[in-house]
Amino acid sequence: MSTRIAILIFDELTALDAIGPYEVLSRIPGVELRFVAREPGVKRTDTGALGMEADLALGDLPDPDVLLVPGGQGNRPLLEDDEVLDWLRAVHEGTTWTTSVCTGSLVLAAAGILHGKHATTHWAYMDRLEELGAVPVQERVVEDGKILTAAGVSAGIDMALTLAARMAGDTVAQAIQLGIEYDPDPPFDSGSPDKAPPELVDLIRSSEG
Amino acid sequence: MSTRIAILIFDELTALDAIGPYEVLSRIPGVELRFVAREPGVKRTDTGALGMEADLALGDLPDPDVLLVPGGQGNRPLLEDDEVLDWLRAVHEGTTWTTSVCTGSLVLAAAGILHGKHATTHWAYMDRLEELGAVPVQERVVEDGKILTAAGVSAGIDMALTLAARMAGDTVAQAIQLGIEYDPDPPFDSGSPDKAPPELVDLIRSSEG
Fold first, then answer.
1. What would be the CATH architecture of the domain defined by A3-207?
2. Which of A103, A199, B17, B118 ranks highest by number of CB atoms within 10 Å?
3. Distance from CA of residue B60 to its chain's centroid?
4. Is B178 in contact with A161 (Cβ distance < 8 A)?
């Protein structure tokens, strides 16, 4: 029996939120990873520049072992979409791991899954996460029981390596890290609001939310 | 006039090779980023789990300002595909920047674009890059004139931030880094062959190539 991983996608998602974890998790031996959506077919990302195909509808995969919800402005309608929220609640009942990247945690929270749980999201959305009932923690990866949430966009790669280690052991996770040559060396050190110039923090905060 | 960026995709590409840079470069103000392929339509990634859509054929975009070639086992046929190699050579004549991620540099090399140039690739493919006429350099991002090449898979994010700074200035690149919260913190330090356990290096080397 393979371990089944479902990544929920939707129009106007942020591609890297989904693809960072996909690239890590799909390399775990014995997993079957599928992209699911409210309606199957090609979803356009938030920039409009890319189409990503969901092979399955929600009903085609009612009981994945691992759930991942990415972020992106397109997930706002999902916060009030009973079909999606009901699916998330039902899936979460049976998962081994329920996970999110960036504002994907807002959707989990809207489904009630993060009520009273420690969780994170993109740094500009911490207040929104609290409004939806979670206990926000500004860390890159937050683990609370079987729930793993990642900070903004690129943090999904770190979360997925953490998850790969939980699912398959440290050696497998390290082999995947080596395979994708994830030895990060960004040319600047401005990847968090604590490190970036304050005027850039204000700029991003005003363009989000 | 917008700056036009073309990302070449194909069946059995490695998704993160393309999507890491896409997520950075598409956020540069004034760019128009498009996915192109030998034939337009949905391409399946190397795991088989994802379809990514190319909106344009090669002939639809004969003169992009920036070219990016990702890697993945599916690019092996491209090394001998005259239609693709001719397009790459013609495009490179007019680009401001010609770039690759992972084994995408092997395709640039097969087109003769890297002859005598310093370049990099996934660490397991350095010998192959040299066979194809480039001067291999085991660094995360290598710049030689207008050619920027990145090491394996995830290195495309670092390359794209470097490129964003060249194209639009350091402040724009830093704002993008903050927007995608790229403050990497992997749970292990095994992302390069110098740092990973030797048995994992052997394992990955034998499964690639």
1. 3-Layer(aba) Sandwich (3.40)
2. B17
3. 20
4. no
A59: exposed, middle or buried (Cβ count in 10 Å: 0-12, 13-18, 19+): exposed
**Residue A87, CB-side half-sphere exposure with 13 Å CA sphere:** 24
b (16+ CB within 10 A) / e for A22-48:
bbbbbbbeebebbbbbbeeebbbbbbe
Nearest Cα of chain A lies from the Cα of B35 at a distance, in angstroms, of 7
Phi, psi dihedrals of residue A44, rounded to the nearest 5°? -90, 135
**Residue B157's closest CA among A126, A67, A180, A28?**
A180
Q: Which of A51, A52, A200 sits opposite B175 (nearest CB)?
A: A200
| Chain-chain contact of B53 with A55 (C-beta, under 8 angstroms) | no
Q: For residue B8, give the H/E element and its range.
A: strand B3-8
Say how far apart CA A79 and CA A99 lie, in whole Å: 16
Query: Rounded to whole angstroms, how far apart are CA atoms A43 and A48?
Result: 9
> Within a 13 Å sphere around the CA of B31, how many CA atoms are in the beta-carbon half?
25
Residues B184 and A184: their CA atoms lie apart, in Å, by 7
Distance (Å, rounded) from C-alpha B152 to C-alpha B174?
22
B106: β partners: none
Q: How many Å apart are CA A32 and CA A201, to the nearest integer? A: 39
How crowded is residue B207: how many other Cβ atoms within 10 Å of its Cβ?
10
Which residue among B42, B52, B181 places its CB closest to the CB of A191?
B181
pLDDT tens string, chain A, 209 residues long: the values are 799 999 999 999 999 999 999 999 999 999 999 999 999 999 999 999 999 999 999 999 999 999 999 999 999 999 999 999 999 999 999 999 999 999 999 999 999 999 999 999 999 999 999 999 999 999 999 999 999 999 999 999 999 999 999 999 999 999 999 999 999 999 999 999 999 999 999 999 988 75
* Residues B141 and B99: beta-carbon distance below 8 Å: no
